[in-house]
Specification:
Length: 219
């Protein structure tokens, strides 16, 4: 059993049926990342030069035939040179620009027909108009996620390709904040399996899964 397998307990995450307000029992203060604004863009990039290093197997026989260049979704990218230029007509908005570097895995076939891989990267600038909160004690962060994929490219020199690919970028304005949210309370965690040796677990079985604050004494 899990939250979603053979579990009909109402105190579990999932779709809400009926009155969404029913069952709300407290206001919870949580530390979380709040997203103030975000946008996504998708463009076709041409003429990108990829110099391939860290080849496996080493020393491929030239010339090489390009197969693909991709980065894994969620892979680490580098964001630098962030500039927040507030708009005079509305200081709550700004032109946010930055430099983004994406590491890539390049796949190719050498002159002997051996498939190989290597590493490369692309660096580009990105800008967008976004809502940026006014300065406060809690700093605002500009974050970016990016995915690049290419299956179109040509050999342009030793271990070098010129490629065309699709670039998708998500920009976010975030801050780590304390947020007060309504809550249905703690979920009921279902057992993974029946207890095989309950005698050994008697002490732990008496402990609540979460700390409780149901009785609050006021100063």
């Amino acid at each position: 059993m899990s939250f979603y397998i053979n579990n009909t307990n109402p105190n579990r995450p999932g779709p809400i049926s009926g009155n969404a307000m029913g069952g709300i029992c407290e206001k919870v203060l949580i530390e979380t990342t709040k997203v103030f604004d975000a946008c996504v863009s998708q463009t076709t990039e041409t003429g990108i030069v990829l110099v391939v290093t860290n080849q496996n197997p080493a020393n491929p026989v030239q010339p090489l035939t390009f197969i693909s260049a991709t980065n894994q979704i969620g892979s680490s990218i580098t964001v630098s040179d962030i500039v927040i230029d507030r708009i005079d007509q509305n200081s709550n908005y700004a032109n946010v620009s930055m430099t983004i570097t994406i590491p890539l895995t390049v796949t190719y076939r050498d002159a002997n027909g051996v498939i190989g891989t290597g590493t490369s990267s692309i660096t580009f600038t990105k800008s967008a108009v976004l809502f940026v909160p006014q300065p406060s004690f809690t700093p605002v962060e500009i974050k970016a996620n990016a995915v690049f994929s290419s299956q179109i490219g040509s050999y342009s020199g030793e271990n070098t390709f010129t490629v065309t690919g699709c670039l998708q970028v998500v920009l976010k304005v975030t801050a780590l904040v304390d947020l007060l949210v309504p809550s249905y309370g703690y979920p009921v965690i279902p057992p993974c399996q029946a207890c095989q040796n309950c005698q050994a677990c008697q002490g732990l079985a008496d402990l609540p899964l979460y700390p409780t604050a149901s009785q609050l004494n006021r100063f």
